[in-house]
């Protein structure tokens, strides 16, 4: 669906004095038990939101409907993404992985499409502020989504100069590709990092960003983004806010509310130490889904130490 059509169909509006919040979680079948744990801890610890949306592909809808409830909705990606982008079992992985194909983009993997879902959902929900939370997150402390709003402005996570000196080459490519998408012709000397877990975006800003990308590229925003396989939705949004909008309607914050373990699996003792070393502002932990941590063991340990 073209973002202009989406904005007309789904009543785009700027956040009110008391904006409505939604939490958005892209997920897939291999993360189902992690997502269940997220929902359980969210229901115990998180306040200040109206609805939780879980975004999955068609074949996973029935499985995830087990998690649906009064404030939790499962959304099929077919309602979000253009019909010309479709998933298939990938024969190059012996059909263990999925690949999304079209004549308009490069072949995309699940992590690419999860990013597209996060952008697309803005055209299909009514809440003003969308808080993005991955399905491998668990909340250990009380958290109010209202922390993302201050004096009518929405918090934009930004680690100033966060890409300077880093050896993560992809991050620099993601930033450069974001600039091309957004029509930013002058290379910024300040290489900010906008990537973290547990962030908030304004829905009206997302819709405006999609229109801007389409104006620059002359094609559907998802087609423009998917033309490159190296992109970050967080960097695209961050550079749009800072360098196209001049920071309008946002304020910056650099604190991470979620402590993330990126690489190695943890023993019970290591996980306890990991939790004990959370910063005061951190309310959740994220154990990346590609790390082989048994989720049942993680659940039991969280219940014991939280």
TrEMBL record:
UniProt cross-references to InterPro entries, sorted A to Z: DUF6492
UniProt source species: Manganibacter manganicus
Name this protein carries in UniProt: Uncharacterized protein
Superkingdom, taxonomy of origin: Bacteria
